[in-house]
Amino acid sequence: MKLFVDDRYYINTSEPIDISISIKQEGPHLKAWYLNNPEFIPVMENGFIGAVASGGVVNFRNIVFNPHGHVTHTECLGHITNEVHSINKVLNSYFFKAQLISVFPEEKYNDAYFENDAVITLEQLKGFIIHEGVEALIIRTLPNTDEKKFHNYSDTNPPYLSPETISFFNDHRINHLLIDLPSVDRESDGGKLLFHNAFWGVPNDLNFERTITEFIYVDAKIQDGVYLLELQTAPFENDATPSRPVLYQLFEV
Description:
The protein has helices at about 65-70, 85-90, 120-125, 165-170, 195-200; strands at about 1-5, 10, 15-20, 40, 45, 50, 60-65, 75, 95-105, 105, 120, 135-140, 160, 175-180, 210-215, 225-235, 240-250, 250. By secondary structure, it is mainly beta. The protein has a single domain (about 1-20, about 70-250), classed as Putative cyclase (Glucose Oxidase, domain 1, 3-Layer(bba) Sandwich).
């Protein structure tokens, strides 16, 4: 089905491109932050059996997981503020013009700040021409392998964004950042969270419009370029929630 975005573009709603990673019972599991595996636990109380395979009439399971560490998730400034602002209240529109870029994080050796890390730098981002009207930037890191969907990132010091890149997001008025990493900041940085704080203007200039979506996966066959992003989220009253970002290719009318 054709859906016209404006007088220049339309999308085909029957061809969505899902860039989320699901949470599942079977391993191997995607995880970070030293978490155990997610758990799917049938409810067994007062003679009730919450598993058809065990003699119950329905499958009725408790699911124990952490949105930040087990699944594609979208978070707001409540992730780092004293008051736990809810993503369900902050995010109240769901379609955005988005641009997908692919970046090979730079290895920084013998650097006083980066401490031999792999970092996405300001100079790298400046090499991309951001299209007019783009509100969401989707970053696919290279190399791009299927292992991203089930990797254990704990204690691996994954790549992250240099704090200096915040000027790029501000200059281009990017309100929604999506990335295929567990965090936009260094895994262990002594609690500085430099990019998080700058992106959301914490503590002195709070920005309630911006969101960060982590743990996406963008298949290699998906080309860099401009898309329409539908940012689907579960209605959790929490700083972060499991999410399902979906892209649609833009066609000229």
